[in-house]
Structure formats: C-alpha cells, structure tokens
Automatic annotation (TrEMBL):
PANTHER family: ALPHA-D-RIBOSE 1-METHYLPHOSPHONATE 5-TRIPHOSPHATE SYNTHASE SUBUNIT PHNL (PTHR42798:SF7), LIPOPROTEIN-RELEASING SYSTEM ATP-BINDING PROTEIN LOLD (PTHR42798)
Superkingdom of origin: Bacteria
InterPro entries on file: AAA+_ATPase (IPR003593), ABC_transporter-like_ATP-bd (IPR003439), ABC_transporter-like_CS (IPR017871), MacB-like_ATP-bd (IPR017911), P-loop_NTPase (IPR027417)
Presence of keyword ATP-binding: yes
Native species: Alterisphingorhabdus coralli
SMART domains documented for this protein: AAA
Keywords: ATP-binding, Cell inner membrane, Cell membrane, Membrane, Nucleotide-binding, Transport
One GO CC term, this protein: membrane protein complex
Stated name of the protein: ABC transporter ATP-binding protein
UniProt xrefs under Pfam families: ABC_tran
Amino acid sequence: MTDNRQPVAELIDVTRSFTQGDITIDVLRGVNLTIQPGEIVALLGPSGSGKSTLLQALGLLEGGFGGQINIGGTNTASLDSNGRTKLRKTRLGFVYQFHHLLPDFDATENVVLPQLIQGTSRDEATARAHGLLDALGLGQRYEHRPSKLSGGEQQRVAVARALANRPLLVLADEPTGNLDEATSEVVLAQFLELVREQGSAALIATHNERLAEKMDRVVRLHEGILS
C-alpha cells in the first residue's frame, strides 16, 4: 500500500560550504533526502564525511545552507529565527553522543523541563517522564542526578528527554558512540523500540554498520555526497 502522507522531512539539493582563508571546503554537495512518517533511517559515513552538518541542517541549528529544507511540509527558508525555534521545539527531538543533561536536575526533571517549556502541565509532564524512564529501565532512578548515573543510564535519560514531546522527527548523532558495545546495543534497541511505539521518524548518524542494519533504511554520506 502506498503511503500518501506528507514526508516528515526533505532535503532538496542542500549544500554547505566553509571558507578558511583562500580555501573553500564543500561539506555538503547537493544532498537530497526524504524521510517518511514513522521511518527510521541510518546515516552512515566515516568521521569528517558531513554527518553532523547534515543533522544540523535538518535540526535548524544554524544557517548558511543552500537548497531547500522542509520539515513537516514547511519550507524552513520562509521562517524567521522565532519560527525556526518554534518548529524545532514542537517537531524535533535531539540525542547526541554526549548526553548534555542538566547536572543540577535529576532524571525526572531533565525529562520534564522540555515539556514545561512546551506548555504541558507539571503533573502530565511528570507522568510522561516516568513512563519513558520506566520503559528505559530507569524506574529506580527518578531522583538521581546525572553524576549518580552510569554512562548508559545518562544516555537513556537523554533518549527520554528527546522523546518527551512526541516529536515528528528525532535526530541522533552517534547516540551510543560513547558507550561500550554491550551497553550500546541495549540502549539503541530501547531507543528504536520507543521511537517505533510512538510513531516518530528518526535519522540516526552512526559509523557502525551492524547497528545501522537494525533500522528501516540506510543512506551513506561520503565527501558530502549522499547515496
């Protein structure tokens, strides 16, 4: 059956260059990518291939990109800074290699905070946070601050935070790259299960071929060209 729903995200002939002195470096060279609702896509490529820059394009995290970037059917070129910020907060979730949790907040508070910013009531946000933390095996860690959590536990909290507002698209940049192999597999499996359960789409950058095989589709970035 053909899925006629609006793509979650589209990159159309997207380019990004940086100039250093007299040298221009083309990091993205005419990238085209479409992600459908509920689709989990692995972005493979070696270090320096442009994976993080491509994620920044979709995450609306910086300007300077050529081509067209659509999120949920919205051409982001038509948005001002406030519009991009609003779209990022309401439609996108982020997981990084390093968790970037707020050190003075416990696990629950780290997952509650983005929901409060979104306008969710504290009671509802707390219930959502606990549900996600339970699903990630952190039911006994609600009140633990990041310094009291293992690396794998910290990254699980980061996953819960990224999914808290039920984003249209989750962007993950080497989300298990800082974990040992066994922990990496467990965290990724839990991450993928939750993404699929709530129907979000995801683009997950990795250099690990074996982890990429667990996703719906694999695209490869090499020297700024996507294939």
